[in-house]
UniProtKB/TrEMBL annotation:
PANTHER family: INNER MEMBRANE PROTEIN YBAN (PTHR35813). The lineage of its organism: Bacteria, Candidatus Magasanikiibacteriota. The keyword Nucleus does not apply. InterPro entries: DUF454. The chain crosses the membrane at residues 40-69, 103-121. It comes from Candidatus Magasanikbacteria bacterium RIFOXYD1_FULL_40_23. Keywords: Membrane, Transmembrane, Transmembrane helix. It holds the Pfam family DUF454. This is DUF454 domain-containing protein.
């Protein structure tokens, strides 16, 4: 008996337009929250990548920009206008390219990482 009542309540709430609109709003809020959380984590890793030679900053900054573009226009604009990553994120956003200097930094970082691993294993 309680299962029938529970199923009827669920059907009524799913079919009600106001509840669906509220549910969609909540889902959008959760989705935006997750994108912002992922963007914040990638931004922190990108900042760490500026100081740690084995962590490349460029891919994490670009990923943070992509996450903030889906999560928050305010954070996305902040990242696009920042002194540290703004030029790189703007170039990617507008031209879908990474500058030669960034590629060089990525290559040096990757080379140092591979060199360190080989040195450590020998």
């Amino acid at each position: 008996m309680t299962l029938v009542v529970l199923v009827s309540i669920i059907i009524k709430t799913v079919l009600t337009e106001g509840v669906n609109m509220e549910k969609n709003r909540i889902q959008q809020w959760i989705r935006r929250w997750w994108w912002n959380a992922a963007g914040a984590m990638m931004f922190v890793v990108a900042v760490l990548g500026l100081f740690l030679p084995f962590v490349p900053a460029a891919p994490f900054a670009l990923f943070a920009g992509a996450c903030f573009a889906r999560g928050s226009e305010k954070f996305h604009q902040y990242l696009m206008n920042s002194r540290l990553f703004g030029k790189m994120v703007r170039d990617w956003h507008e031209h879908r390219k990474i500058s030669r200097g960034t590629w060089f930094a990525l290559g040096v970082s990757a080379g140092m990482t591979v060199g360190f691993i080989v040195w450590w294993l020998l």
